[in-house]
Automatic annotation (TrEMBL):
Pathway terms, separated by semicolons: Lipid metabolism
Pfam families given in the database record: adh_short_C2
SUPFAM superfamilies reported in the protein's UniProt record: NAD(P)-binding Rossmann-fold domains
EC number of this enzyme: 1.3.1.9
Keywords: Fatty acid biosynthesis, Fatty acid metabolism, Lipid biosynthesis, Lipid metabolism, NAD, Oxidoreductase
The keyword Oxidoreductase is annotated on this UniProt entry: yes
Family matches, as InterPro entries: Enoyl-ACP_Rdtase_NADH, NAD(P)-bd_dom_sf, SDR_fam
Family: Belongs to the short-chain dehydrogenases/reductases (SDR) family. FabI subfamily.
Natural source organism: Deinococcus navajonensis
Reaction equations catalysed: a 2,3-saturated acyl-[ACP] + NAD(+) = a (2E)-enoyl-[ACP] + NADH + H(+)
Name under which the protein is recorded: Enoyl-[acyl-carrier-protein] reductase [NADH]
Length: 260
């Protein structure tokens, strides 16, 4: 049986696409294929050219620079969403960052500065984006973000980013409760390891990726396309009734201990 999702007339903002390998782009591709109108935000002018190239073939897309930690830029971004769309059906937060210094040594040595940076960029910006989006949301609107299993179990070198992902998952539940009576949904997707720019900045990611492929129930890692399809489910009416959840798309990696 094939289910096709029609998002024509629906609007989306995707925050955090660096290039075609970004999980945010894999999600955007599903939304665009389903007929949604999609706006994109990117952190710095460095990424503008790449995003212009990616979105060139898609009618009705627009892009705007916004550092998610910058209040003025966030206000301007959501004003643009209002001007372009009038309302917002789908919000995708696909943003994370921790300074390399925080991921090289021991978790025990995490500095307050690195802690604040990692938690602000990787978790607080979801809360901020949801608050800026609030006036544009209506019953049926859906918000998602991207998390990782290091929130639940220790993954070597993930360090403060594991704490940031735990905060993101908890924030998802609190936001879901705040929006609950209006039936605005908030969920987070826990993706297995995928080769993206952000992942490459994690020390030892290559080994983690290979081990993931060996140990996952499927004997391979999940793909960005599979992340995109779960996102489509959560963002569309297929996902009504689901809120506050952390949903895994990891080819069964998190359920396994080490395979024989
Ligand atoms: P990515 O392509 O590098 O995307 C991360 C994006 O976050 C980049 O566009 C980056 O912009 C942006 N960003 C960082 N700080 C920002 C800020 N202050 N304001 C606005 N944007 C900011 O990597 P990705 O793997 O697709 O990451 C997307 C999400 O998936 C992240 O939450 C990540 O933790 C999560 N995730 C990834 C994996 C994986 O294995 N790849 C697994 C599970 C979850 P710049 O390039 O300008 O810094």
């Amino acid at each position: 049986m094939s289910v096709s999702v029609d998002l024509s007339g629906k609007t989306a903002l995707v925050m955090g696409v660096a290039n075609s390998r970004s999980l945010g782009w894999a999600i955007a591709e599903q939304l665009l294929k389903a007929g949604a109108k999609v706006g994109f935000s990117y952190q710095g002018e460095r990424l503008r050219g790449e995003l212009e190239k990616l979105t060139a073939g898609y009618e009705g897309t627009w892009i705007q620079q916004a550092d998610a930690t910058n209040e003025e830029e966030m206000t301007a971004l959501f004003a643009r969403v209002g001007q372009e769309f009038g309302q917002l059906d789908m919000l995708v937060h696909s943003i994370a960052f921790a300074p390399r210094t925080a991921m090289e040594g021991r978790f025990l040595d995490t500095t307050p500065e690195d802690w604040n940076t990692a938690l602000t960029v990787s978790a607080y910006t979801l809360v901020s984006a949801a608050r800026h989006a609030e006036p544009l949301l209506s019953p049926g609107s859906s918000i998602i973000s991207l998390t990782y299993h290091a929130s639940q179990q220790v993954v070597p070198k993930y360090n403060v980013m594991g704490v940031a992902k735990a905060a993101l998952e908890a924030a998802t539940r609190y936001l879901a409760a705040d929006f609950g009576e209006r039936e605005i949904r908030v969920n987070t997707i826990s993706a297995g390891p995928m080769r993206t720019i952000a992942a490459r900045s994690i020390p030892g990611f290559g080994g983690l990726y290979d081990k993931g492929a060996r140990n996952a129930a499927f004997g391979r890692n999940a793909t960005p396309e599979e992340v995109g399809k779960l996102a489509l489910f959560l963002l569309s009416d297929l996902g009504t009734g689901v809120t506050g959840q952390t949903m895994y798309v990891d080819a069964g990696l998190s359920i396994m201990t080490v395979k024989e």
